[in-house]
Design brief:
By secondary structure, the protein is α+β, with helices and mostly antiparallel strands. The chain is built from 9 helices and 17 strands. It folds into 2 domains: about 120 residues, Aminotransferase class 4, branched-chain amino acid transferase, N-terminal domain (D-amino Acid Aminotransferase, Chain A, domain 1, 2-Layer Sandwich), CATH 3.30.470; about 160 residues, D-amino Acid Aminotransferase, Chain A, domain 2 (Alpha-Beta Barrel), CATH 3.20.10.10. The strands form 2 sheets. Strands 8, 9, 10, 11, 12, 13, 14, 15 and 16 form a 9-stranded mixed β-sheet that branches.
């Protein structure tokens, strides 16, 4: 998706002009992929723009870096303030997507990351619906990828590591080139894991099921955890349960969740129509509540919002 440039990007504690936010071609991460990132959204609310679950995202970034043994030279509090600054100075009062990135910079070459400088950047820009304008209305077409999700001993699946997304990019590319909107990835054991940038839920007999993140090798999604709470508040039971691909084919409803995508219904999986082929009532109810919660229209979820 194309980016709409904004004015300034935070780089290592300083705000620099968007067009000057550059790195050296010999930056370590550019060659070896070690580093981590986050995807966060901020929304326009009745009381000003607010970042959704800011602390949780920043803490997941720091946890990703812990796994990689990268010492981030900023605290969680400093990074939260920096995210708020970036949204504020760029005048993103209508909401935006925020991309914090921790990468190893210029100074060392070779696979050994020790000694490479640790750099941090935070950019923000307006970003529309990740899977297309009519995804929420019509649902998306998904394909189970021929690429398996990482084995957890090959790549840490709890971390949003930069290099780990080669796996996701391969799956996305395969799905899009075959005419689908998004890929579903199976884990090394053949069970459903997650999508290239989303977690997945199915609805069966009025109850929700999602693959357990650690067993499925899926990212522990912050949206997934928000949906678990919203679903429970709406009176639906949610179970983390290993799913097979035929559970997807036979589900009454399927939907995906993620910061970028938000909540998007799935219309078909591998050309098998899901349910009635249009977004089901439980997906609708959850999507509507999430939509309102992130925009400050549901007081019970106000704790999830940080005004900038
Ligand atoms: C692979 C993958 N799974 C799931 C998610 C959903 O996570 P979240 O809801 O925290 O954005 C993302 C997005 O960050 C992702 O990249």
């Amino acid at each position: 998706m194309p980016i709409t440039p904004t004015d300034q990007i935070w780089m290592d504690g300083t705000l620099v002009a968007w067009s000057d936010a550059k790195v050296h071609v010999l930056s370590h991460t550019l060659h070896y992929g070690s580093g981590a990132f986050e995807g966060i959204r901020a929304y326009k609310t009745p009381n000003g723009v607010a970042v959704f679950r800011l602390k949780e995202h920043v803490e997941r970034l720091l946890r990703s870096c812990k796994i990689l043994m990268i010492d981030v030279p900023y605290s969680s509090k400093e990074l939260c303030e920096a995210v708020k600054d970036v949204v504020r100075v760029n005048g993103l009062s209508e909401g935006c997507y925020v991309r914090p990135l921790v990468y190893l910079g210029y100074g060392e070459m070779g696979v050994n990351p020790i000694g490479a400088p640790v750099n941090v950047s935070i950019a923000a820009w307006p970003w529309g619906p990740y899977l297309g304008e009519d995804a929420v209305e019509k649902g998306v077409r998904m394909k189970i990828s021929s690429w398996a999700r990482h084995h957890p001993n090959a790549m840490p699946t709890a971390a949003k590591t930069i290099g780990g997304y080669v796996n996701a990019s391969l799956a996305k590319l395969e799905a899009v080139r075959a005419g689908y909107d998004e890929a579903i990835m199976l884990g090394p054991d053949g069970r459903v894991s997650e999508c290239t940038g989303e977690n997945l839920f199915i609805v069966r007999d009025g109850a929700l099921f999602s693959p357990p993140p650690s067993e499925a090798g899926a990212l522990r999604g912050i949206t997934q955890s928000s949906i678990v709470k919203i679903a429970a508040d709406l009176g639906y039971s949610v179970t983390f349960e290993a799913l097979r691909r035929d559970d997807l084919y036979l589900a009454d409803e399927v939907f995906v969740t993620g910061t970028a995508v938000e909540v998007v219904p799935v219309a078909s999986v591998d050309d098998r129509v899901v349910g009635a082929g249009r977004p089901g009532p439980i997906t609708r109810a959850i999507e509507t509540t999430y939509h309102q919660a992130v925009r400050g229209e549901r007081p019970q979820y106000e704790d999830w919002l940080t005004r900038v």
